């Protein structure tokens, strides 16, 4: 039984399929993804570039644009489906129930509006507070994300802030209406290393304070292993493995997860140099039959080319989609 | 701020000075104005005397100096034809041109912005394609032809709008304004539409291009992720970011329309500056032409300055320097 298989999860994504119908073919960016998040939980969503992590995040908020479309599945918030919900309902959800922090703080804020106006917008949209109360709430929130002289800073424009400060503003905006779930899409990759850890610490603390849940999207397993309660690993739009953070990091059962862990620099694993997963992500428009990972997999056998593996229960809390999963203690 | 204004003022003066040199040179190469003032049967000595009176017997440098000093004093001389101060003639007709141009610009903006935003936000839609095809027509059809077609349809065929003249005007601060009377509005519609179509099409295309560019930016998606309505995302976040090039073109077009309202005014017998200019060119009425050219130069320079001010209102990253 996985810890996140709670009776009433906050968010349950079931068999989500999000496709992009481009000129050069259909991109099945997310092709049957399922996961659950309970109240107050942090879930890591990891995988290499192009795995579909951002598309999952945008799908949850109903922000998939042409030529993309959610072709199937359910996104249940408190058991209510968002895929079939209308735009009005989605607008209530966005920012209020579920908010999002984007990868690049340099481009997430409107350059022509003051920071104060951009913060205020969320409160105007989602609360009935009057102008004074909204102002007060903005000041407090900015201070709580570590920006001093908040009342003054509200009058400033984004270009007057550093990257780290802007990401703090974005986080403040994401937290303002006290959402229950925050989707953080690589919130620190654009920042330099010292700022990265500050921001992550801040997010963890804020989430804990507010009792919110979080989907932390990243390609960096090291980051996620510190913060997440459980992890979902995506490859080519499919979940290849999921489970509690400790089990998944210490004894992964899927060869892809193993590869990701081995390519974390500076880990306890005794590797002289960084190991990269050999090969590259296949063209998602025409995936091979069988397992998507088989061209890069050290354990691949004949069956892998014929039959697509499905998620099955492994040791501890892990579920993996692999015909020849690793047992605890096996390396590759 | 004060330093900036001073700098701009000096710049503007310099531009106007250069224009004055060009205007002076142009005037000296285009025929001898003395024949405009003397009677047909004037004797040689009469002509010589007129020449002395006009200062045309002096060296070009002296002539230019006199030209410049009188310009600076606001003395543009008498119209050879009307025997009135040239300045007065132009200023009398300025309101007619300006109000026609303003109505045209307002119409252009009122149509171009919403349609441009729509076409930029839904680039693949059928309606957007129709709008874009229409804007291509607006750019490529010559104004005089459009004017004639409008006259044929609305004035001759259906008889809903008059085809010429300004109609009734009312006086405001000593200026005669058509827009204060119903009849004036009735008269201004056709010429203003004619004048606005080209600008409308250009502004529409600029707005669309800007919106498409802005639409790809993260902050637009972030605004949606906050729960903003589609309308707010497009107009409050998108449009403002797409506006700089639109304002630039707006300024250029505004100057252009004032300067080149000539054709429209001629077609619709609209009693504005442009029509006076054409008449004055036919009659080699130098002082009037000079006033017109200097005034148009001044208008361009001022619009240019205002556009720069508007930039700073739109974008806090642009400062007056
Ligand atoms: N608008 C779009 N049109 C076409 N294809 C798209 C679009 N958006 C995403 N995709 C495709 O969907 C797949 C998943 O993209 P996604 O951005 O979710 O990857 P990701 O896991 O977030 O990667 P990264 O780590 O680079 O952010 C990619 O193959 C991408 O090319
Ligand atoms: S199914 Fe086969 S190819 Fe795919 S990951 Fe498992 S062992 Fe490797
Ligand atoms: Mg991404």
TrEMBL record, chain A:
Transmembrane segments: none annotated. It is found in: Cell inner membrane. Keywords: ATP-binding, Cell membrane, Membrane, Nucleotide-binding, Transport. It is a peripheral membrane protein. Belongs to the ABC transporter superfamily. Gene3D superfamilies: P-loop containing nucleotide triphosphate hydrolases. Its main location: membrane. The keyword Nucleotide-binding applies. GO terms for biological process: peptide transport; transmembrane transport. This is Oligopeptide/dipeptide ABC transporter, ATP-binding protein, C-terminal domain-containing protein. GO terms for cellular component: plasma membrane. Residues 11-261 form the ABC transporter domain. SUPFAM superfamilies: P-loop containing nucleoside triphosphate hydrolases. It comes from Litoreibacter albidus. One of its GO terms (molecular function) is ATP binding.
TrEMBL record, chain B:
The keyword Transport applies. It is a multi-pass membrane protein. PROSITE patterns: ABC_TM1. It holds the Pfam family BPD_transp_1. One of its GO terms (biological process) is transmembrane transport. Belongs to the binding-protein-dependent transport system permease family. This is Peptide/nickel transport system permease protein.
